[in-house]
TrEMBL record:
One of its GO terms (molecular function) is DNA binding. GO terms for biological process: DNA integration; DNA recombination. Keywords: DNA recombination, DNA-binding. SUPFAM superfamilies: DNA breaking-rejoining enzymes. It holds the Pfam family Phage_integrase. This is Recombinase XerC. It comes from the Bacteria.
């Protein structure tokens, strides 16, 4: 008996009776990338290694989204076992991915970390001579975009006249991000002095030997970040993602919480409300410090 393809089993999995519309939509969007990569494979030829490699390739997704992807794929293969297409789930007992702290991923509200004004001043001094990193830091700080979103930008995606760009965020939802005049200046300086022309990407890198130009990777940016902040004790343990948190905490109270949610691209208002708690704690600390000085 010929084994059915992964796509055929996935179709049966999605056509099960009783699935809510929201659940079905979530399953479909989660499984589409997997089916694009392996849908034509007979399901019994898919080994643990291929599936793990696929799951590990989802680094562009948020931590919680990667966990949902893995759980859905687990459910799909459990269904294949139940239907008799497989003797065992090839990713049985596969551990869920751990959050990458360098990307600002976390599992609790307590992990919100932002940069203070002295830290920001120190950071901008650290990147002053690196036009590419200066542009990236300024764009992250002023727009609130995620580093993964910024690194996916092409030059044509940026509207310099309106000082804005559009990103594809979580849940494949598009949103506008806006940047300030000082960021526009930093971007123009980078494009004059640091950007390689033979690539559509906004932020580029060039191989030292072949001179091949391509979109810069997160790994390369992270290495540059670590090198630049290493000499500065005030920036110890600072992360690129902290700039997104800084953007949000700077704007809480200056705009409506719904407007901030839209700028941040949060699906739930509860996620945005975390920044109100952070700002309240910061205000409490400032108030206590002021009282101490008056006594």
């Amino acid at each position: 008996m010929t084994s059915p393809t992964l796509a055929a089993v996935a179709t049966q999995f999605l056509q099960r009776p009783g699935l809510a519309k929201g659940t079905l939509k979530a399953y479909e969007s989660t499984l589409m990338p997997l089916l694009a990569a392996h849908g034509s494979w007979p399901i019994d030829l898919l080994e643990r290694g291929e599936i793990v490699e696929y799951l590990q390739s989802l680094t562009h997704l948020a931590y919680t989204t990667r966990r949902k992807h893995q759980a859905t794929v687990q459910s799909l293969f459990n269904f294949a076992v139940e239907q008799g297409y497989l003797k065992a789930n090839p990713i049985v007992r596969l551990k869920q991915p751990k959050p990458d702290l360098h990307k600002g991923e976390h599992t609790s509200d307590d992990a919100i970390r932002y940069l203070s004004e002295p830290q920001l001043s120190c950071l901008y001094r650290a990147v002053e001579l690196d036009t590419r990193m200066k542009a990236i830091i300024s764009l992250l700080h002023r727009s609130g975009a995620r580093i993964s979103e910024v690194l996916q930008l092409d030059l044509d995606d940026v509207d310099f006249e309106e000082q804005r760009f559009q990103v594809l965020g979580k849940g494949n939802k598009q949103r506008w991000c806006f940047f300030s005049k000082d960021t526009a200046i930093a971007l123009n300086e980078y494009m004059r002095e640091g950007r390689h022309q033979r690539s559509a990407a906004l932020f580029t890198a060039q191989q030292p030997i072949s001179l091949e130009t391509s979109r810069i990777s997160y790994r390369r940016i992270h290495q540059c970040w670590e090198t630049l902040i290493e000499p500065y004790p005030d920036l110890k343990c600072a992360r690129l993602h902290d700039l997104r948190h800084t953007f949000a905490t700077e704007r809480v109270g200056l705009m409506g919480i719904e407007e901030l949610r839209a700028l941040m691209g949060h699906e739930s208002i509860q996620t945005t409300l975390r920044y109100q708690k952070v700002t309240s704690r910061r205000a409490e600390l400032v108030a206590k410090q002021a009282l101490d000085k008056l006594q």
